[in-house]
# Entry
Amino acid sequence: MTTYLLSAAVLPLSDQDVLVRVRRVTAAEAVAILAAGFTSAVGHAGTATVLAGVLGLPVKMNRCAVHLAVGDQAIRLVLRDRLPEGMVLDAAALAALAFTLDHVVVIQSFAPGDGA
# Structure
């Protein structure tokens, strides 16, 4: 069971059919979830800086592949607007954008085609 910090709205799921719960959380709720430890999968320095400021936790930039499986959870940053293709923002520009935080939990796996 691993807890991740993600900087994308995309859910990087395993190759199985899974049941996932997603709910919006406050920064304080996110910090409580991350308090036991987490793996950062935040791929841009600016985003890591913004998340560190919002959460009050050290956030490393870490461009790694994540495949959520049953029992895994994540806090993910979701930008409210889509950026133009190829645009990378620095921390100041990113902090000015509206975003939310989601708590994602992979609850159950199914045989292919047997999902809920």
In short: Residues 3-110 form a domain with the Rossmann fold fold (CATH 3.40.50.11170). The chain has one domain: 3-110. The mean pLDDT is 85. DSSP finds three helices and five strands in the chain.
